[in-house]
Design a protein that fits this description.
Layout lengths: L2 H14 L10 E3 L19 E3 L12 H6 L12 H5 L11 H10 L3 H16 L4 H26 L4 H30 L16
Antiparallel strand pairs: 1-2
Helix pairs in contact: 1-5, 5-7, 6-7
Length: 206
Amino acid sequence: MDIDNFIDYQVLNIFARNTDWPGNNTECWKYLDGTLSPGSSHPTDGRWRWLVFDMDFGFGLNFDYVRNSASKYGENNAFHQTLEFALEPNGPGWPNPQWSTAMLRNLMKNPQFKSDFISRFADHLNTTFHKDRLLSLLDSLKNQYEPEMAEHIDRWREPQMAYWQGQVNVMKTFALLRAELMRIQLNNYFDLGGRDTITLDVEQQH
């Protein structure tokens, strides 16, 4: 399997607080005619990779059906303990049964994988999931879809525009808070001993 892809897949679902996963909406794929090439990252190398789909439970969705599915791990908002949720050894039949967390739990026994997972998560928190980037993406998507909402509401009679705008704001609040809260989760779960500040001096090569 593609270990880097698996780590990115786990990091994304954990960050987004996807609570309709990992016991549901989990699929992987590989190129059947590929030849396994150790060290290669080409998608035709024959290794298993994971698919991301159906993430509507993420980024702050909070109604009773979702809230009750994971109340053990806190409210279904940016404070949700999704790292613990994804590593739970005795979860219920849905959404995080034992079989669905087994691979990540057992890989964590490998010191190199554990180190790579933590480092990769930290890298994403500083870049991919930086609050400024997420808020910019959400604003871009809102501006793209908002002109179409009037026609949608006129046709289907729901939702109300104010409700739709409110849900966008729920996602923006999640994006604003989540990265810092995930740093706390990582630190507490793995007992990392706090954080250090690192300054990089990069010289561009021509």
